[in-house]
Every structure is written in structure tokens, then in C-alpha cells.
Design a protein that fits this description.
Layout lengths: L6 E8 L4 H17 L7 E9 L2 E9 H7 L5 E3 L8 E5 L3
Antiparallel strand pairs: 1-3, 1-4, 2-3, 2-5
């Protein structure tokens, strides 16, 4: 069971063209995570979500990670089902 209560998400857009954004976020978040001495409450994951004809990439990160990383366009959101996500950065689930 996931004990993290607050999450933020960023819609990166169409999966076909968003992988460069995902890689850039992964690099930034990894640097932030290491700069903060790898705290256990920082986790970032992503998922592919169907939206009409195209698939979107949504990035989810803990509130602590968002507070440190300050990703543009991040909004509070529902807790992701970690069984349906892929690890991106931070403390691995």
C-alpha cells in the first residue's frame, strides 16, 4: 500500500513526441534527488494514458519532489496506481 498522500502530475502530451520531455524531466529529477541526499519521500513515476486517438504520457511526483524540483505545469492530482506506472526517478517503489 502506498503511504504517500499528496501527488502532483504533469501531462507531457502525446507519447509519440514527448519522450524527449520525459528524458529531460528524468535528468532534472535525478539531479534534484541526489542534491537532497536521496530522501525516501521523493518518487517520480509515469504512465501512458489513452486519450481519444492518441496516448498521453503523464508524470506523477510526490509533493516533496515537486516542492524541490518546481516542475512547470505541475498540478495536484489523484494518487497514481503504482502497479500501472513506470519508475522515473527518486526512491524506487
Amino acid at each position: 500500500m502506498n503511504l504517500i498522500k499528496e501527488w502532483f502530475c504533469v501531462n507531457l502530451g502525446d507519447a509519440i513526441i514527448s519522450h524527449s520531455k520525459l528524458t529531460a524531466h528524468q535528468n532534472h529529477l535525478t539531479q534534484v534527488y541526489e542534491a537532497y541526499d536521496k530522501p525516501s519521500n521523493m518518487l517520480a513515476v509515469y504512465s501512458y494514458e489513452s486519450q481519444e486517438l492518441h496516448c498521453q504520457i503523464t508524470l506523477f511526483l510526490t509533493a516533496e519532489f515537486q516542492q524541490a524540483a518546481m516542475l512547470e505545469g505541475a498540478a495536484r492530482c489523484r494518487e497514481p496506481d503504482l502497479r500501472n506506472t513506470s519508475y522515473l526517478a527518486g526512491n524506487a517503489p
